[in-house]
Design goal:
heterotrimer, A mainly alpha (403), B alpha+beta (393), C alpha/beta (368), B: alpha+beta, MetI-like fold, two-stranded antiparallel ribbon, C: D-Maltodextrin-Binding Protein, domain 2, 2 domains
């Protein structure tokens, strides 16, 4: 757009913007001790920090007994998933690494340093002293697959876009088939053996993926001009949003078996999933509706002027734009769902939090509450923080809000 | 559109729309009826046909904290009310404290003091990325249960007794003049309302708005203080007698006793929600453009006036809608109390289901109570939102 | 105006989806009606509850589904390899051994106290072996049948030694930790009301939380089944500082539970339990069972081990059912000692849970 007089800027020496340069003392003065009350605030804060941090670090490095975590690492990660089948979880992870590597290469081709930093994390895991050699090899493989995907994307960015999309769309069904099994090839692993972090992540993924289409339908229904459809959507959304997730889970656990015909029996993992889907669909609908409302009316009018019918307008013009706008919101919804899956521990599933209380019942590890809860809090924190960081990057990359 | 009559009815959009709706309705109703039918069949087999008769039966279990009288011979219905009141109590207190803490942290987040600013962001980043349930467990087992035993209890000035049985603090015990004092308070309230009304009128007429809230609050407090002194002088009896806690046998007696479960739940909810409210507040204040502040300063308003008259009212419009959803979240999140043993609505409902086996009735009751909380809160906040939007003109 | 058209499209999708559900609904409804007409005597069809249906379903499935506790040391918990272990869990293995001759053909469902009866009623599990107390209400209203008691227990109270609490009356004003959804909670309320003692219950969902809170000094006392108190005492920070009072608040017979309506299945579970008793009475255990089977001349032993009398077939099982139980899981004494006996941290005296020969209550009807 601004190609009228570019030469001047290209050739001329570009001066860095003026910055205020400080000495260390100058920086301290400006940021910490500029006025008397800032000085007091700073000193008080430093004192409080000292009081809190010192005993905590002291405990973590000298008193805490982390053996409980080391010994039960597999339980925390995959629960009671059969040990000889854990390779399936690894395959799913490798495929994820490959897909993520590809996406990284296509969307952030220049962010090599951050990518390399992320790749260091699995290597770090591989270097941990107490894990099995099998896990070690797999963590290295994880990086190899990520690099492979990234390399492909860098090599042929344009040609790889479509395969990437297919991979992303196919990942969910592949994941479920891998974990659950297919009769002749892979042994079926019943959902009651799913546990730990794997169950937590699966619940979150299943919750988001399946509630997505339902949410879109509800959002369209809520914006519809048909009174009955609208009423139904509004009622569903508002009722579900008005009650806590744990009561929906309570309902799913106790009442779902009553609603189903006697021949159909579903176990409590599936019931929890159903509860989560019922709950998330309402929130999904509101997120999608937000995206729909952001589409200017001109888009509808332009589409009709081009002779598109209602169906085409919705699915080719409006929804793609709306969904692109809501992707960051959906990532946030995924993060909060990831945290909310802890509630299934209340209804008795062995997710990360649930497995923690089981581990705490092992006779040799009674009274290790702090170590265990701190460990799982750290896992939750690392995952949510990484995802929210990624979502912020994604927001920038997608250029949401920049039009 | 003019030739509507000539369009055959099977291509008339309005007719089609209605047919579609009727089909939708029929299918939905049929589906729901089918679920209902399954349920009734299954329940009939177990002899548990839906009926709320059980609410009149004796509960048989005790509840540790109750705002209204309750013991094992009370009914299930009363147990429900006890749980509901506990939920309301913790939600209201949680909302008040979370708002205060959230505003403080939100303002800290905007501070130019590097340490305070970073500390606030660190707090927000840590709390927002950890599940509330894990936080609650931490507060309960990691903080409140680690306090000293009752025998080695700490006495803070007051006396306030701090132990892992909770915190017992001095409180007032109503005396014979308490009900008279209530009338005095009512008078004070009416006077305060009149002051509010008059000052607002004056403000509107002169264009110089006095500190309305401050003056009316002072009026109320003044009347309350005068009334207290008057009662002491004329009736020789203060309306409230100090009720000091002391240790007697296995527990503390007297004063206001707060259990560790209640404190842990409240702290967990407050510290968790405050992180979200802080972000809401920060976004609200940042949404007010810098030009507004500069213009206000150019008009000669001081820092406080700028904030009270220019920044705050505008920020409030951005803050209130997301704040509402945070309040609703807090009320709903209080249902996690069950994990740390506080007898809230969900916990009591769980126990009732357990003892009676009446899954359907308990679920329906519990969900409708939570739903009405949400509806009432959002109705109130919508009203408030409209009210402050009106100021916008 | 054209917007209605796209809504129509969406509606059609919804409609088709719902119609699909609706139509299958109609079919199922019709089927249900048919079954009722054809088999009048079968009361409902919700769960495979008619005679023999559970065993058939279990055999078709190829494994047993057993509802257990996942966090009660000694009775049901998950070890570091992710396997279920414990006294109750061993009885699940015994049932599997009796049916399939393979103790590992069991799938375990961890259940909280709350959800256990729902799981049983809806047929999610075949048998519930989760320290469940036999009461009249549960036996009747909840549609459950209690098989032979595997563990005679009583509700007790544990306090700190230095608290000086000796009897119930000393608990005036006390805080008492208790698990919700149990008979324990109700017994406590009843007993305290009967003695006119004021107390505050501190109620938790899970046993782990109850003892955690007690250990931290949240409560003056904790109440539960005595066996649980003993097993949990070993897991407190300083087990020696705690004492279980010589008070029994209630009788707590614990045993396997099945759905009402399938008498064959009820018999099987009962006799699996009796087989472990009989094994102890006859002195047969997993180590000597093969030798005894090869050499025995005792008719009772022969019937028991399936060498004569076709006892197993009367239950719908193979004749070596009891042999399999003893061989793969062991007799009652072995199960008890393995999980709760002297070699374990619990070292729980047999007490009432001794064979009648040794003055206990375990008394198996004769296998003949």
């Amino acid at each position: 757009m601004m190609n009228r007089e570019p030469k001047q800027y290209d050739t001329g020496e570009v001066l860095p913007p003026p910055t205020e340069r400080y000495t260390v003392l100058g920086w301290l003065h400006k940021n910490l001790f500029s006025t008397w009350y800032y000085t007091i605030l700073t000193l008080v804060t430093l004192y409080v920090l000292y009081i809190v941090v010192k005993p905590t670090l002291n405990w973590a490095f000298t008193q805490a007994q982390w053996q409980v975590v080391v010994v039960n690492l597999r339980l925390f990660m995959v629960g009671q998933y059969p040990a000889d089948q854990v390779f399936r979880v690894w395959i799913a992870l490798h495929l994820l690494a490959f897909t993520a590597g590809m996406a990284w290469g296509i969307f952030f081709p220049r962010a090599r340093r951050i990518g390399a930093a992320i790749l260091l994390i699995p290597l770090l895991f591989a270097a941990l002293p107490f894990i099995s050699n099998f896990s070690r090899v797999n963590w290295v493989l994880f990086d190899v697959f990520a690099l492979l995907g990234w390399g492909l994307a860098i090599w042929r960015p344009q040609a790889m876009r479509r395969p990437l999309l297919v991979l992303i769309l196919a990942y969910f069904p592949i994941l479920i088939l891998l974990i659950y099994g297919i009769k002749p090839i892979l042994r079926i692993v019943k959902t009651n053996l799913w546990g730990g972090l794997m169950l937590t992540l699966l619940l979150a993924v299943v919750g988001i993926v399946i509630s997505f289409p339902i949410g879109i339908l509800l959002a369209l229904g809520r914006r519809s001009e048909l009174p009955i459809v609208k009423l139904f959507s509004v009622l569903y959304i508002e009722i579900i949003r008005g009650v806590p997730l744990v009561t929906v889970l309570f309902m799913a656990e106790l009442m779902l078996p009553l609603f189903l015909p006697p021949q159909i029996k579903i176990d409590n993992v599936i019931r929890a999933m159903a509860g989560i889907i019922i709950f998330e669909a309402a929130y999904m609908a509101e997120n999608v509706r937000g995206g729909l409302q952001a589409i200017p009316k001109g888009q509808y009018e332009a589409a009709w002027a081009l002779g598109l019918n209602g169906f085409q307008t919705t699915f080719y013009i409006i929804l793609p734009q709306a969904l692109r706008n809501v992707i960051p919101v959906l990532v946030n919804q995924f993060i909060s769902l990831f945290k909310d899956t802890t509630l299934v521990a209340i209804v008795g599933l062995l997710d990360l939090l649930g497995i923690a209380s089981t581990v705490l019942a092992q006779p040799e590890f009674i009274g290790r509450q702090r170590e265990v809860y701190l460990f799982i809090a750290l896992i939750y924190w690392v995952f949510s923080y990484a995802m929210s960081y990624a979502s912020r990057r994604l927001e920038v990359a997608l250029g949401v809000g920049e039009r | 559109m003019m030739k509507q009559a000539s369009v055959p009815f099977w291509r008339d959009e309005r007719v089609l729309a209605w047919i579609a709706q009727i089909v939708f309705l029929v299918v939905t109703v049929a589906f729901l009826w089918y679920l209902y039918h399954n349920m009734i069949t299954a329940l009939a087999e177990r002899g548990l046909l839906p009926s709320f008769h059980f609410l009149k039966l004796t509960a048989g279990f005790d509840i540790s904290q109750h705002l209204i009288p309750y013991d094992r011979s009370s009914t299930y219905g009363r147990a429900f009310i006890v749980g509901t009141l506990n939920t309301i109590e913790v939600s209201i207190l949680g909302i008040i404290f979370a708002t205060i803490l959230g505003i403080i942290i939100g303002v800290m987040r905007l501070s130019t003091n590097w340490l305070i600013n970073k500390l606030a962001s660190l707090y927000i980043e840590i709390i927002r990325n950890v599940p509330l349930l894990v936080l609650l467990v931490f507060w309960y087992t990691g903080v409140f249960l680690q306090l000293p035993r009752l025998k080695e209890a700490k006495f803070l000035p007051g006396p306030t007794i701090v132990s892992n049985r909770g915190i017992a603090m001095p409180w007032g015990k109503p005396t014979s003049t308490w009900h008279i004092y209530l009338y005095i308070l009512l008078v004070g309230f009416i006077l305060a309302a009149i002051v509010w009304w008059r000052l607002t009128l004056i403000g509107k007429r002169t264009g110089r708005m006095p500190l309305v809230s401050l003056w009316s609050t002072l009026t109320f407090l003044g009347v309350a203080a005068l009334g207290w002194i008057g009662l002491v002088i004329f009736a020789h009896q203060a309306p409230l007698a100090p009720d000091l806690p002391k240790i007697q046998g296995l527990s503390t007696v007297g004063g206001l006793e707060l259990s560790p479960e209640f404190l842990a739940l409240l702290s967990g909810l407050v510290f968790y929600t405050a992180a979200f409210i802080a972000e809401v507040v920060r976004a609200g204040i940042q949404s007010v453009s810098k030009g507004q502040v500069e213009a206000a300063r150019a008009l000669g308003l001081n820092g406080f006036q700028t904030f009270r008259l220019v920044v705050f009212p505008q920020a409030l419009r951005v803050i209130v809608p997301p704040l509402t959803s945070q309040y609703l979240n807090l009320a709903k999140n209080s249902s996690l109390a069950v994990f740390i043993g506080f007898p809230d609505l969900y916990s009591v409902a769980g126990t009732i289901h357990n003892q009676t086996g009446r899954a359907v009735e308990v679920t329906v009751l519990m969900m409708s109570i939570y739903l009405s909380f949400s509806l009432i809160t959002s109705a109130f906040m919508n009203w408030y939102n409209k009210k402050i939007r009106f100021v916008e003109r | 105006m054209k917007r209605t058209l796209y809504l129509l499209g969406i509606l059609l999708i919804v409609g088709v989806l719902l119609a699909a559900c609706g139509s299958s609904a109609g079919q199922n409804g019709a089927q249900a009606v048919k079954t009722v007409i054809v088999t009048v005597q079968a009361k409902g069809g919700n769960t495979p509850s008619g005679f023999g249906t559970t065993l058939k379903a279990v055999k078709e499935r190829g494994h047993l589904i057993c509802g257990v506790n996942s966090e009660l040391p000694g009775f049901g918990y998950v070890d570091q390899q992710g396997n279920y272990k414990g006294f109750d869990v061993d009885f699940c293995h015994a049932v599997a051994a009796a049916i399939f001759g393979d103790p590992n053909k069991v799938e375990f469902r961890p259940l909280t106290a709350k959800e256990r009866f729902t799981a049983l009623q809806t047929g999610e599990i075949d048998v519930l072996i989760r320290n469940t107390t036999w009461t009249l209400t549960r036996d009747t209203e909840l549609g459950a049948n209690f098989a032979a008691t595997t563990f005679y227990d009583g509700q007790g109270i544990m306090v700190r030694k230095d608290s000086g609490i000796k009897k119930l009356e000393d608990l005036q004003g006390a805080k008492i930790c208790v698990a919700t959804g149990t008979t324990t909670e109700l017994n406590l309320a009843d007993q305290m009301a009967a003695h006119g003692i004021k107390y505050t219950p501190v109620v938790f969902e899970k046993a782990d939380q109850v003892y955690g809170a007690y250990d931290e000094g949240r409560c003056d006392a904790v109440t539960s089944d005595k066996s649980q108190l003993v097993s949990r005492r070993t897991t407190l920070k300083n087990p020696k500082d705690h004492v279980i009072l010589d008070i029994t608040l209630s009788k707590e017979p614990l045993g396997p539970v099945v759905r009402q309506g399938d008498d064959q299945w009820f018999d099987i579970i009962n006799w699996v339990v009796f087989a472990t008793f009989t094994g102890e009475e006859l002195g047969i255990n997993s180590k000597n069972v093969d030798k005894i089977k090869a050499t025995t001349q005792n008719p009772n032993v022969k019937k028991f081990l399936g060498l004569e009398g076709e006892m197993g077939q009367k239950l719908g099982l193979s004749d070596d059912w009891a042999y399999n139980i003893i061989k793969y899981v062991g007799n009652y004494a072995e199960i008890y000692n393995r999980n709760l006996g002297p070699g374990t941290p619990f070292d729980l005296p047999r007490g009432l849970n001794n064979s009648w020969i040794n003055g206990g209550l375990l008394y198996a009807p004769p296998i003949r």
